Structure formats: structure tokens, C-alpha cells
Amino acid sequence: MNLGRVVIPADEIQKRVKELAEEISRDYRDKKPLLISLLKGAFIFMADLVRNLSIPHEIEFITLSSYTNGVQRNSNVKVVNALKGAVRNKDIIIIDGIVDTGHTLKYLIDALTERNARSIKVCALLDKPASREVDVPVHYVGFKISDLFVVGYGLDFREKYRNLNYIAELTEKENDNNNSSKIQESIAKK
After folding, report:
1. Taking the CB of the first residue and of the last residue of the chain, which one, N or C, has fewer CB atoms within 10 A?
2. For residue 79, which of 136, 36, 35, 116 has the smallest C-alpha distance?
3. pLDDT band for position 152 (cuts 50, 70, 90)
4. What is the pTM of this model?
5. Which CATH number does the domain 10-162 belong to among 1.10.10.10, 3.40.630.30, 3.90.226.10, 3.40.50.2020?
6. In this structure, are residues 144 and 127 in contact, taking their beta carbons and an 8 Å threshold?
7. Active site residues
8. According to the model, what pLDDT value does residue 86 have?
């Protein structure tokens, strides 16, 4: 697998994260939402999002897994690290790096509903509607993308590329015009 073209540059991500934070701050101006980040993919997005919120809020983390071998999605969701705090009567915003099949989100929404959350909304940096296998609501969307395998800004391939400040496509073949060293060189020059 090789790093391909830049799908969303860093400056566009930062601009959109600020816009999402403003929208959430408006919608929750009289509330104190609990933001639940899906680890590990959403941690960078969550950090930038909360720095831009103008409202009181709480944060919590959960690790769920629906991938095998780093790239193959499946419908079996397993809890790796559970939530530590209570969610009863809280307004929840699930923070996700990317929504594709919907299985992970459906699992979490159902679990939070069973635990009597007052309200549940989803905020995702990336939404891939073409990959959806389960209907799940996504209330706050950073960017809609086609059915690509992407990395960067917290999203990984076998624990690589999370540190990129942009979103790039991961491809199976190397393309001399789009290889990772040339992309990283061009980003470094900006």
C-alpha cells in the first residue's frame, strides 16, 4: 500500500473543523454535551474540535473495532475499551473520524440508547455514503468523500499515517507522480 494523492489539504480541514465547532456551539448553547471520541481514528479531530468549541462540554473515549487485517471491514463490532462514565440523561455527540459501513456507529448508538442517553448526535470528519451498509444518522459532517481508503489526520493503515495533517488516499500501486515522498515534500514546502 502506498500513499497517493491528497484528498483534503490541511488548511481545508482546519477551516471546516472551526465551522463544525461553531455549529455545535450554536446548537448546544444551553446544554453541556458529552463528546465521545471513537479511538483511535477520531482523536486528532476531537482535539481540534474541542479547542474551537465555545460551550462547556465533557469528553469521553471509547475504542471499538470492526476492521480485520487493517483494511477489511466487517459487521462484527467488538469493544476494546469501554466508556468509563455515565451517559444517563446526557446529550451525547459521538465524534468519529470516518463513517463508512455504519456498523460501528449503529452499535454505539444502540448501546448509548440502552443506557438512557437523553439525545445522541454524530459528528464525523469524513462521511462515505457509498460504503454504507447500515443506515445511521450523521448530523455534523466535515466532508463527504467517495469510497476511497484514506489515511491522515488520525486515520491510519496498520498504525501508519495518523500524524499527517491532511487526508490522503492509500493506493495499492505506486504512481511516480503521486508517491508518498513527493506528497510529503510538497506539503512540507507549504
Report:
1. C
2. 36
3. very high
4. 0.83
5. 3.40.50.2020
6. yes
7. 100
8. 80
